[in-house]
Amino acid sequence: MRKKSIFQIFGLCVAVAALFSSCLNSDESSVTLYGDAAISSFSLGTLNQYQYVQRPSTGKRDSLAKIALAGTSFKMSIDQLKHEIYNLDSLPYGTDVKKVVCTVASKNSGGIALVGIDGTQGWYVATDSIDFSVPRTFRIFSSNGSHQRDYKVWLNVKKDSSQTFGWKQTASEPLLASMAAGMKALWLKGRLVVFGPTEGVTHAVASVDGKSWRQLGQNINTPFSADAWQNVVLKGGYVYMLSGSTLLRSEDAETWEQVDTRASLKRLFGAGTRELFAIGTNDSIMASTDGGATWATEQLDESTAYLPTQGMASLCFSYAQSDQTDYVLLVGNDGKAMRSWRKLSTYNTEKPEGRWVYMPVDAANGMQLPVQTQLSLVNYAGKVLAIASNALVYQTRDQGISWQTVASYQLPSNVAGSLFAMTADDVNNLWVVSNAGWVLQGKLR
Fold first, then answer.
1. Degrees to nearest 5, angle at CA 366 with 164 and 392
2. Is there a smaller number of Cβ atoms within 10 Å at the N or the C end of the chain?
């Protein structure tokens, strides 16, 4: 619509409103017209973000996934002096801003027009998508037709896929410093819980904010074994622990119940949607689908000689290419090198299906994970991260074959400790604890 015609239409609307007002009787409702021209509110509707989803090492290219974002989460700032509107918090990298639906309100119900990229004008329609790949101009008319005002509107979008991440130290905790030989961290129902050995037995300490800590009690008379902290996994709201040959579980890491007192297991290392995983006394991977009551030997595509024996960590996340399928990753060292295994566990059948596949690393691969005595794996912001006993944070883009340090996630240079454990909570925080008592909290901004 051309500039002349939109003014003519708006003028006609004002004239009709004035005529309607003059025809009303004194005891009937009246129409009040105002001379203000301003945008009073501006919000974004649902936005589409496009991300490349990493596939396992199958030779196939990555796939592009569309993610719906709540535009209302990105508050639009209105500068009434400069007549500018923009978002202070940038939209994520990959957000499509060429087709955006927005909700605009004007003061005193003034007219709202959108100036086209080519200079033409048309009335703003709330259901129409707008191209914000370039700054746009919204023209506001006062309801009495006496004034107009232009607002420049633009959307800030991250220029690259990286996001700002920062660490802060929340505490230096003696209870953690006493766990000199190692530690395992997990997030359990609103609390950061850390297991570790102290004076020959495994203890647990907890905090809701990373600042104040207390040692957790236990209702089991027999102390947990010194290495029980290495045999702690989280599944379905329960924390499971293998202490010697006894398998236990708890909802709060304080009140424990025995699942099996003669478990034929050496190491409890991970869990999926429907399974618990362990290294059995037969030196193979075992799985349980009934909460640890019974165990069955898993299928492996390679010799058990390549299974890790120490410094083990496991991670489970949804497999993007298939519904009701877990991607389970096991990483650890066998005394010579770091070994990685994975299982695609499909659980849409009565019994989960899938086998463990060894992922060998070529000696020429310069991005191998150094041999570690302790390891933590975390799925954070769609990335598989690892923290090792050398205080470095690594990321794998191929689910465990190659690893690179990530500058944005590295710990402060003055961090103290020789062993570190990492976990993520349910509100996008990343937590790291060290055996020197350091507690670090990090978050993407």
1. 40
2. C
365 confidence band (pLDDT: 50, 70, 90): low
For 356-385, b/e burial (b = at least 16 CB within 10 A) is bbbbebeeeeeebbebbebbbbbebeeebb
Report pTM.
0.66
Amino acid letter, residue 266: K
Instruction: List, for residues 61-93, the tens digit of each pLDDT value.
Output: 456 678 889 999 888 888 888 899 998 778 888
C-alpha–C-alpha distance, residues 65 and 51, integer Å:
5
* CB distance 240 to 247 below 8 Å: yes
For 207, other C-beta atoms within 10 Å of its C-beta total: 21
Nearest to 239 by CA among 194, 188, 175: 188
Cβ–Cβ < 8 Å for 378, 424: yes
Beta bridge partners of 2: none
- Cβ–Cβ under 8 Å, residues 415 and 440: yes
Cα(248)–Cα(269) distance, integer angstroms: 14
> Taking the CB of residue 131, how many other CB atoms lie within 10 A of it?
12
- In Å, the largest CA–CA distance within the chain is 96
Amino acid in position 361: V
Structure tokens at 293: 């009551």
Mean pLDDT score, 44-59: 71
Per the CB < 8 A criterion, the answer to whether 339 and 329 are in contact is no
Q: Which tokens in the block code for residue 27?
A: 């005891």
Q: How far is CA 185 from CA 57, 176, 214, 293, in A?
A: 29, 11, 15, 25
Q: Are strands 84-87 and 148-153 parallel, antiparallel or unpaired?
A: parallel
What pLDDT shows up at residue 22? 42
Surface-to-core class of residue 262, CB atoms within 10 Å of its CB (0-12 exposed, 13-18 middle, 19+ buried): exposed
| Sign of the Cα pseudo-torsion (121, 127, 131, 135, in order) | positive
Residue 44 has pLDDT above 80, yes or no: yes
Residue 224 has pLDDT above 70, yes or no: yes
DSSP for 25-83, written as a single string: -TTS----------EEEEEE-EEEEEEEEPPPSSSPPPEEEEEEEEGGGSPEEEETTTT
Tokens 């770091």 -> residue? 338
Whose structure tokens read 């048309």?
Answer: 122
Distances (CA, A) of 230 to 95, 114, 317: 41, 62, 21
Residues 167, 433: Cα–Cα separation, whole Å: 12
* Phi and psi, residue 212, nearest 5°: -100, 130
Q: How far is CA 244 from the centre of its chain?
A: 35
